[in-house]
Amino acid sequence: MGLERSWVESANAPGADFPLNNLPLGAFAAGGGAHCGVAIGDSILDVTRLEADGRIEIAPGAGAILGEGDWTAFIARGPGTWARLRAALTEMLAEGSEDADILAAYLVAQADVAMAMPVRVSEFTDFYAGRHHATNVGTMFRGPENALPANWLSIPIGYNGRASSVVVSGTDVTRPRGQVKDADADLPRFAPSARFDFELELGAIVGQPSDGMVSVAEADEMIFGYVLLNDWSARDIQAWEYQPLGPFQSKATATSIGPWIVPKAALEPFRVATPERARALLAYLHEPGPMLYDIALEVALAPAGGRETVIARTNYREMYYSSAQQLAHHTTSGCPMRVGDLIGSGTISGPEPDARGSLLELSWGGASPVTLEAGETRRFLEDGDTLILRGAAEGDGYRIGFGSCTGTVRPARELPDWAKD
Amino acid sequence: MGLERSWVESANAPGADFPLNNLPLGAFAAGGGAHCGVAIGDSILDVTRLEADGRIEIAPGAGAILGEGDWTAFIARGPGTWARLRAALTEMLAEGSEDADILAAYLVAQADVAMAMPVRVSEFTDFYAGRHHATNVGTMFRGPENALPANWLSIPIGYNGRASSVVVSGTDVTRPRGQVKDADADLPRFAPSARFDFELELGAIVGQPSDGMVSVAEADEMIFGYVLLNDWSARDIQAWEYQPLGPFQSKATATSIGPWIVPKAALEPFRVATPERARALLAYLHEPGPMLYDIALEVALAPAGGRETVIARTNYREMYYSSAQQLAHHTTSGCPMRVGDLIGSGTISGPEPDARGSLLELSWGGASPVTLEAGETRRFLEDGDTLILRGAAEGDGYRIGFGSCTGTVRPARELPDWAKD
After folding, report:
1. Predicted-complex ipTM score
2. Entry's InterPro entries (chains A, B) (predicted)?
């Protein structure tokens, strides 16, 4: 299967992120609220308005379901509805469609609108499922012999994050303050994080609820699609707070997600298997087929007013555990999963030094600063830095792109008087 | 201030949990959905129906706000609305009220209805802020010299829990399965938890949102009220999974909350200070006044078909950090807090051996089983066991009760074929 051509010409351009094969879901600011849209070429098809005008019926018998300005109600309707809308939009946007003249009036230029949250995030769970990342971090903290925790090859290690801090690409991120303890100090200080970092991840959007334990195959069916995800992390706050109950405020400033949810349906041609198991997994984690995807990823950093430098290139196929395995593990306790749950893959690092998905790894804890194009260096993020994640699966004559997930670091807010020590 | 008398006679009885001084908020099953109610004596005043019938206007100009069957929309309106409803209900239910005859028709017997979730929990954060509990657990795991982690006296240690697993008192709890690793084994097994436990806590209900860092005084104002909370915990699953990112599936089976949210307003006479600081706190954690409450708590355990035994008695004033301090700390990173966020205090253990708020502590890791009245013993919870938490602040001639928070342990579900190793 090659490029599916659209009457939206920009969708057929070589290297376009959003050909007809993709059709990712997003939301954009419109009339004081937000509308649901689907990316096609350099445009967005305004699906909320199509539905309101009666030109498309997304949920027969249920009335308009996109009026709330995000895709949550649509996703909640399940795989039958997902497939029906995809088929309808594919037909409407295909080259030769009779509706092209009418539909052209529903196109909005991506360049003209701000993006909004595509889905209401119920809860956010972040995993630690990249072996290269876990090995790098473990080596820095515990030495190469003890790099991987004893449980790592058996459990997709995860922890609950904070859904209220998930923001859409383009949202500024304010440098956090927190308790940090200098190595030579007995007591902590309350200070702006000096080791503020990003984490390159992919996020899975849970599209169906569960009640009780689900298999990896069932978990895969529950996933609607994937987004780029940047889990901003304050390494100095994390180092002091994380024992014994894990990261908390170090991860609660913000998690940025890309504006486009790429449906699993668009990624099917790019499935690849998880790597060979270094230790046999328990049966409940067995995969019925390939559950990762071949998605090339890159991270760029642009200092304030400066040009961007690509500082890392990696691939989602480097993960050790798939999102489906993570989701299956998430349900073992009986934990109910809900529509809109966001499952972070964990930092996606490859084996090479320039394939590392965080500055902690790229600068090896600050010991080897990363050099940007203009000669500046970075150990961790500086105020004014813009971080850009990109990703795409490369098909035969087309690509399934994720767009970009960006965020600019703003200086810490002024310290209130009552917080001055 | 002594007992405020009500025309609902049972509210004036000595030892009643719900005198006119209390007026806690709950929700109860009614007509296929749920209604909002306020406990008074052994009855519930159906406030949803009062509002629907136009007998009370809770949010002037906003129409009916209790139609959704829980108190979330009410709580979101803030302290002015909280105070106005409390004043109106106090007047309506007071001895001598002219409305008594009419209002009597809006009373429902507590014994006749099932309780429902009083609020939609946005996110659940659980703390580890009881010094006796942290010392007990630390002593068992690391010895008495290293009992408290280095950060413990500086940070209210917390982690994000799972809101989807929060259930109301009376909901059965199914014993979880999970990865457990026996001490003499190299590899984990997938098995029902054999060390399933409770944790006695109090939960604070966040009633106002925040954007950016708040002081302890502001945090206290954001809290609407408190509930009993049982954070069910699978100790064997926890022991294997919790390094390095904290508890995950071991805490995700269920967290039970009591049916009644006791408003902060009812607890004002019972404020007490946190204990003397063993190490000075950073300024942002300084308390402007007493932020704990003198609330006597007890835990009872009833085996299937058997009588209950009280296995622990303690008091909320044993906490080292208050909920207001925890909430202030929660916002340091800029983490937005939302209406309906639930903040677990952490396990409330006192200094005495019979004042410990978990079986892990009461049985000292299983080494010293707890003996029940009928002679049975418990290291951890058995199938069929019902756990009952109770709490009350004792005033001069009246008490502010929390009712009870109960849950019965059901056997693990049958293992699906695909999960058999």
Report:
1. 0.97
2. Fumarylacetoacetase, Fumarylacetoacetase-like_C, Fumarylacetoacetase_C_sf, Fumarylacetoacetase_N, Fumarylacetoacetase_N_sf
